[in-house]
Amino acid sequence: MNQARQIIHCMEPGYSGLTGRGVGVAVLDTGIYPHEDFGQRITAFFDVLHRRREPYDDNGHGTHISAIIGGSGAASGGRYQGIAPGCNLISVKVLDAKGGGFASDVLMGLRWIREYKDALGIRIINISVGSYSRRNMSENSALVRGVDAAWDDGLVVVVAAGNNGPGYMTVTTPGISRKVITVGCSDDHKEVSVMGNRMVDYSGRGPTGACICKPEIVAPGAGIVSCSNEPGRYAVKSGTSMSTPVVAGAIALLLEKYPDMSNRDVKLRLRERSADMGLPRNQQGWGLLDVERLLAD
Fold first, then answer.
1. Which residues, in sequence order, are bridge partners of residue 92?
2. Catalytic site residue from 241, 243, 274, 290
3. Closest Cα partner for 285 from 205, 200, 187?
4. Would 21 be classed as within a structural domain?
5. Is residue 78 part of a domain?
6. Secondary structure of residue 288 in the 3-state scheme
7. What is the pLDDT of residues 234-273, one digit of tens each?
8. Does residue 297 lie within any of the structural domains?
């Protein structure tokens, strides 16, 4: 079973009715393939790179991320279902076929989301993208300013901690922002393959250069099964890129239940209701995502 789904498998029967319905989640990534598991819930697509109008994903990473958030599991008989299978997905292609890109394209994608957030009902932004170059590691960097502006507009911004751990100050930008919710991997003790490289203990750890404790929270990211960019097919991927949409999907459930919550309310609730794993704060943050506690009255 998809490890992401296992997190919320215990939510029976009290919260089984929550699917993220009506909540828009924007995903900045390599795009999205119109997989059966998305149905009609890809409500918008913006291609920063090539300005193509129809959804596509020439890499597969963005589709995998999007389905962890909101795949219905239709092509697998419900076996590989995302966290919020009723949410609306807004895909913003900012990365190329090799999964690389430029800060300027990410910033353009963020500006587009801010412009259309009300029209498209966007409440959450998932950014499983990061830079580890020294010039981008300041809180004054353009990427940090970009996600901070989205947060200031009321959006819940969820960002990957990156796969450059286990040393100190290894959280990638824009995850170093003190405003956003930065997500690490809770099971990075398991050896995995990421882009052909065998890795263990890879989840980005704080503090940041400004001595901010990071990440905020951790979630599973090892061996996650989710949609591929081929009809009816699934793939296995690992890393903090996969941990981040687990949290974004859980927040979609929370905002369906409590639509008047602000992004600050969401962040505080995550802090109060995560499960302490007994690990250092700059590794686990507040602790492991606990969806049952998160959604409890």
1. 28, 46
2. 241
3. 205
4. yes
5. yes
6. strand
7. 999 999 999 999 999 999 999 999 999 999 999 999 999 9
8. no
**Total domain count, the chain:** 1
Find the domain containing 249 and state its range.
3-292
Average predicted confidence (pLDDT) for the chain: 93
Cβ atoms of residues 88 and 60 within 8 Å: no
Q: Is 61 a catalytic residue?
A: yes
At 199, list the tokens.
Answer: 């890795």
Which residue among the candidates 37, 57, 61, 186 is catalytic per the annotation?
A: 61
Q: How far apart are CA 11 and CA 146, in angstroms?
A: 35
Catalytic residue among 29, 187, 188, 290: 29
**Tens digit of each residue's pLDDT (9 = 90 or more) over 217-244:** 999 999 999 999 999 999 999 999 999 9
CA dist., res. 243 & res. 192, Å (int): 14
CA distance 19 to 286: 25
The strand pair at 24-29 and 88-93 is best described as parallel
**pTM higher than 0.90 for the full model?**
yes
Q: Average pLDDT, stretch 274-282?
A: 97
Rounded to 10 degrees, the C-alpha dihedral 103/106/111/116 comes to 180
Could you tell me the two tokens for 205? 């750890």
Is 217 inside a domain boundary? yes
pLDDT reported for residue 42: 98
Say whether 270 sits in a helix, a strand or coil. Answer: helix
Domain at 226, CATH number: 3.40.50.200
Tell me the per-residue pLDDT of 113-160, one tens digit each, with 9 for 90 and over.
999 999 999 999 999 998 876 666 688 899 999 999 999 999 999 999
Strands 234-237 and 224-227: antiparallel
- Residue 12 pLDDT level (bands cut at 50, 70, 90): very low
3-state secondary structure of 179: coil
Q: Please give the structure tokens belonging to residue 170.
A: 């290894």
